[in-house]
Every structure is written in C-alpha cells, then in structure tokens.
Amino acid sequence: MEPLVNQTPTDQPYCKDELAMTHAVKAFQNSHEGVTPLHAGSILRPATSHTLTPEFRRELSNALIKHDGAMLFFSIDQFHELTASFGANASDQIVNRVLEAIRNRIRSSDASCRYHNNIVVMLSNTSVKSAHQVADRMRETMANLTFWLGREQHKITVSIGYTGVNKEDNRDSILARADLWLSDQLGHHHIENKTATDGNRLMHLCIA
Q1: Could you write out the DSSP letters of every residue in 60-89?
Q2: In CATH terms, is domain 18-28+39-206 a member of 3.30.70.270?
Q3: Is this structure's pTM higher than 0.85?
Q4: CB within 8 A of 159, min separation 6: which ones?
Q5: Where are the domains of the chain?
Q6: Which residues of 76-96 are buried (b: 16+ CB within 10 A; e: fewer)?
Q7: Which of 35, 37, 151, 192 is most buried as measured by Cβ atoms within 10 A of its Cβ?
Q8: pLDDT reported for residue 143
Q9: Number of Cβ within a 10 Å radius of residue 166
Q10: pLDDT tens, residue by residue, 12-39
C-alpha cells in the first residue's frame, strides 16, 4: 500500500508564546467538563510518560530534536454514544480497530498509539501541509470502516487535529495542544490545525 505522505521537509515554521500557551492550558482545564474523557493530568509531564508508548515517545523525541515532523490526534466522534449503547468493551474495541487501520496506512518511520480514548500519530519528516493531506485521507479511510455491534453494522467518523513541531516545542507543549484540541471540538468529522502560539483555529473544514 502506498504511504499516505511524502517525506518533505517542514515548510511552515512556528513561533512560541509562553503566555499564550499558559492561557491555552487554562482554557483546556476550564472547558474539560462534558467532553471526550481525558486523564485529569494529561497536560502534565508525569502523565505523558505513562500514557504514551516507548516507541511513540522515541519518535516524538527525535522530531523535537530535529525540529521536524507533525502530530495528528484522532477523536472518534460517536465514542460517548457507542459506550452508552453497547458498553465500554465495545467502544474500546473500536478504538483499537481504528488504531490498527491507522497503523496499516502510515510509514514504518511513523509512530502511533492510544492516548486515553483517542489516538495520536507522529509523522516524521513531514510538513504541516503534508500532515493536512494525510489527515484528509485518514478521515476518508475511517468513514469507510464498518463495525458489527450486536446484530447491526455501524459506521464511524473521526475528527482529526494536527500540529507541526517547532524548534521551541517540548513534549508537554505539543501534547497540550492535542489535549486542547480534543477538549474543544466544534462538531463531527472535521480536520483542524492547531498552532503553537494560541488556541485559535487556522482552519476548520466541515465535511458532511
């Protein structure tokens, strides 16, 4: 299967504003109630070391050292409804199935893992523009997956956030952007870019 992304250098530099990042973290904490469940300390260093696989942490560290790469974060739109209707085991299996589908469609140089009830993907040597293209193809792939729950077939959609790695990032700051995005979705089945400087959207593509 052809890889979903070309290995192109990062083409969109970012700058970091420490005060804005602090505000972004506070915004996540204030808006946390009633959204996709996340570990209460997921934006703090101790939690990141316990929720990411060693392989993912290694690839993220390499991207931070090289100041190159992009991160995708996936949220299953119907997660709460699936859990309420079919139980936690069924929704857990769906997250794992989505993760398997993602792993089958990324390069061997990329890394992916579960992040609470969500999924994160680290794309090496990938520009923000290419990350958007990967996100769009992944969204289409997920929309074509079919799941048997009980005696019925169900389709799911995912919302995908993405962000580039900049030279002043660290593991906590880039995961804080992932957490902030996951807590602040506008709707289902969309793709969105988060910058390092604030919590505002640069792009919101609604896809029915």
Answers
A1: HHHHHHHT--EEEEEEETTHHHHHHHH-HH
A2: yes
A3: no
A4: 74, 75, 77, 185, 187, 188, 189, 190, 191, 192
A5: 18-28+39-206
A6: bbbbeebbeebeeebbeebbe
A7: 192
A8: 83
A9: 20
A10: 333 334 444 445 445 444 443 433 333 3
